[in-house]
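Lecture notes, part 5. Sequence design as translation. It can be helpful to think of inverse folding as translation between two languages: the language of shapes and the language of residues. The source text, in structure tokens, appears below.
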């Protein structure tokens, strides 16, 4: 079944790319596959990353892009794009220095495939047709995920696993669903309830950005999808997505509703880092003994375990060096089943240089969004920019309490790409309008500025309506 599925998804990705381009393939093939087939059996390939369903689609898109002569996306390159490329190179360099040549080559190919959805999202956003198609596939998929999540939480845990197993798509199922607050912890198509919750939050943000930039935000299906995303995050019964959801909503209200929202973009990054720093500092004074863990409630135990992780990994974080430990990390000395902290886990593995580049992501994106908002963005432009950046920050907060899972970080990259392209579009149109105003007359953008008497009338354009 893995061979047939891999070939089918490869052909589908290739065909959609050759027909309508890589952005369309992201919208109609890759997004649904990421939502529903992330745990399906993959095909092992010698000397290449295994052809999991997601990777199979990406192989097809990459081959199709090369065949069309579009290996590099047709986008206006910016600082965030440079950070993404440097992350690929840094992780590969770390693997080369700490492992064998094959390890470095393998990590290089893995990182290229991991970052590819970011550039595909950048490309997809430039076409309103692709945006609309991506909106519908994501919205409908999110409602289906929400339906399964509610059923699993209340009635039948592992329902989605049973469906996958019936079609021979997974070999191991029957996950021991946790039980909290009188409900089962749903996970649906993902590897853990936390991943379900994080993905639901990010998919909700993606629907919000796409809905607000296609003129379909008030459509009942879009509103229902947003509601389904929030419900799905809630029934994951995981504190990590709760942190991301609450942080994202608060940041969105600040950026979109306050007149000074644009000036608070970069300070908000400092606030986020300060919050993470406080969480880090207070963790060292927590009693992490077994007795202390057993004496607290659900939230207390969760916090206690995160504090234990910080205490045991901190010496290795401090000694990781610029390129980290890689394969030489003495995992047994950690005495941990997992490292539920993306920052600490990947700093140990990839080094301090990786951490610096990772923290440069919100700075690069925030600078774009801030510039777009300061150039007089109207409400129809401000809301999607605020939503995209706010939930990028919210997810970075939640990353402090969970490992860097591939699937939710991939959705995060998609959201980054959409937000970056939206900001660039606003900046480009505003700059063009200013140039026209300087040369001929004041130009009316989205009906916000009326031309003075006697000025040459220029037909207004909607920033997000062009392809």
């Amino acid at each position: 079944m893995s061979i047939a599925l891999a070939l089918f998804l490869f052909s589908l990705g290739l065909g959609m790319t050759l027909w309508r381009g890589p952005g369309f393939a992201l919208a109609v093939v890759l997004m649904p596959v990421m939502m529903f087939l992330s745990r399906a059996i993959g095909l092992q390939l010698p000397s290449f990353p295994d052809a999991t369903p997601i990777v199979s689609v990406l192989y097809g898109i990459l081959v199709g892009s090369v065949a069309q002569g579009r290996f590099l996306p047709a986008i206006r390159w910016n600082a965030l794009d440079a950070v993404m490329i440097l992350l690929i190179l840094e992780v590969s360099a770390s693997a080369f220095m700490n492992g064998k040549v094959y390890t470095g080559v393998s990590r290089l190919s893995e990182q290229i495939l991991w970052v590819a959805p970011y550039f595909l999202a950048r490309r997809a956003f430039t076409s309103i047709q692709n945006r609309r198609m991506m909106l519908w596939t994501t919205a409908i998929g999110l409602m289906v995920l929400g339906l399964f999540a509610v059923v699993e939480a209340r009635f039948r845990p592992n329902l989605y696993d049973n469906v996958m197993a019936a079609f021979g798509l997974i070999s191991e199922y029957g996950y021991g669903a946790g039980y909290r607050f009188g409900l089962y912890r749903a996970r649906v198509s993902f590897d853990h309830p936390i991943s379900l919750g994080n993905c639901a939050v990010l998919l909700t943000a993606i629907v919000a950005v796409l809905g607000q930039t296609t003129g379909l935000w008030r459509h009942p299906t879009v509103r229902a999808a947003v509601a389904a995303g929030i419900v799905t995050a809630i029934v994951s019964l995981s504190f990590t997505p709760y942190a991301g959801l609450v942080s994202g909503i608060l940041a969105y209200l600040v950026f979109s509703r306050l007149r000074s929202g644009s000036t608070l973009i970069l300070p908000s990054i400092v606030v986020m880092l300060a919050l993470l720093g406080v969480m880090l500092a207070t963790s060292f004074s927590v009693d992490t003994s077994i007795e202390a863990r057993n004496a607290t409630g659900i939230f207390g135990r969760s916090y206690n375990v995160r504090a234990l992780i910080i205490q045991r990994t901190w010496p290795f974080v401090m000694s990781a060096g610029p390129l980290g430990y890689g394969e030489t990390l003495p995992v047994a000395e950690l005495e941990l089943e997992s490292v539920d902290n993306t920052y600490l886990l990947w700093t140990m593995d990839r080094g301090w240089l990786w951490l610096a580049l990772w923290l440069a992501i919100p700075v690069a994106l925030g600078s774009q969004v801030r510039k777009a908002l300061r150039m007089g963005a109207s409400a129809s432009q401000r809301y999607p920019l605020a939503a995209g950046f706010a939930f990028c920050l919210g997810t970075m907060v939640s990353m402090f309490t969970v490992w860097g899972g591939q699937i939710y970080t991939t959705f995060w990259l998609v959201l980054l790409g959409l937000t970056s392209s939206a900001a660039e579009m606003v900046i480009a149109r505003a700059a063009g309008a200013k140039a026209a105003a300087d040369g001929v007359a004041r130009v009316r953008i989205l009906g916000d500025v009326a031309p003075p008497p006697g000025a040459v009338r220029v037909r207004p354009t909607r920033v997000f309506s062009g392809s």
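The translated text above is only one of many valid answers, since several sequences can fold into similar shapes. The radius of gyration is 23 Å.
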